[in-house]
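Re: your question from the hallway

Yes, I did run it. Sequences:
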Amino acid sequence: MKLNFQSPKGVPDILPQDQKYWDFVSNIVQKRCQAFGFDKIGLPIFEDIGLFQKGTGINSDIVQKEMYEVKRLSDEPDEDHIRYALRPEFTPGIARAYLEHGMQIRPQPVKLFAYGPVFRHDKPQKGRYRQFYQFNMEVLGAKDPLIDSLLLLLIWQIYADLGLKNEITLEINNIGCKKCQPKIRKELISLLEPLESKLCPTCQSRIYTNPLRVLDCKNKSCQSIVHTLPHLIDFICADCKKYFMNTLEYLDELKVPYDLNPFLVRGIDYYTSTTFEVKDNADPNKLTSLGGGGRYDNLLALYGGHDIAAIGFAAGMDRIIEKIKTLEIKVPSESKTDIFIIQIGAKAKKLALNLIADFTQKNYAVSCAVGKDTLSSQLKAANKVKAKYALIIGQREIIDKTVIVKNMTEATQDTIELAELEKYLNIKLNAGN
Ligand code: HAM
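Structure:
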């Protein structure tokens, strides 16, 4: 069948049968974040394009190649003349909201989490989408190795709850602070300049715009050059070194396993100090990232805040769910239908209508098979939706003012007086039977 419309390239639908995975992941994230004192925040899906140009950074691929601009069809200019972009990540929006709503006056640090869709014009393939979902947490307003290690503990606990503890490696590095980053850049430029011709074209231009990014280029010839360079730990200042050592010490104390990756730099411009990434062990080249984050102690100053340190993390929910499915990790899939109403005959249909109105009003999940008339076809439909109870109303039940209540999991049944039905179901459903 040739259809007139399809979902956009790289923008998958999330079908009903997959919702249980999304519920599973978001419930774990919500539960764990709340246990660590994080509050949930909701943010606009589109924001001032400048927020991302300044924050995510003009040197990042996200801003240069992947961001979507939001435009109205009308030629009429908007009253504010602001250009808008679909959010490619949460961090700039959260930083903006923190400042805009005066969260500096709350006890610091402020801990916020969010999840939802983000948009990047990536080359669509498995695990790489143009609309994908992130869960994201940020700790704003303080800097301490304890904060970094506790955030990493939270991240570790989330992956453990998801059943992915043995499937991931937490890689960590420190890329220096405002004080030492200019020096690091200078030294990297002088080391890379003589090797320029051996680097890939992207890295050749990156030497001058963002030399740190050369360190995590996936190109083989760049990699072989990078591995001859001194490690970042040898470039960073004494304060950063001490901060890094303390963070690792706390991680050891918390028994959070990690790998040091001296070449780990991230593809977003705002990072400083601690950076980390959750790598998928199934990928021998360690290119698949199931999450990543780090400190961004200079970002809020770019938005008009003062010296406000912050750290955060985001994970790709689509990738995590693909992993859970590949590993066939069991996720809870509770039946959503409490009561399935089966009716045979015109009078039973009317009673069924009244029961639907009654029970939905009382917040039970009620279903029926409109258009199906036989008992067997309706029972089949009840089984398909994994209903907990089926109420069967035939001519006899109409005359007797009764209903047959069939327990669909145990395949037992009782005949209940209509007047007693609500009480009976209340007890059964609330006892979890
Ligand atoms: P990011 O590394 O750009 O960081 O993205 C985080 C995660 O989103 C990645 O590790 C990956 O799992 C997922 N992801 C990225 N691109 C795609 C894609 N095209 N399709 C599917 N999944 C994808 C950030 O976004 C930062 N905001 C993280 C952060 C928060 N840093 C500080 N606070």
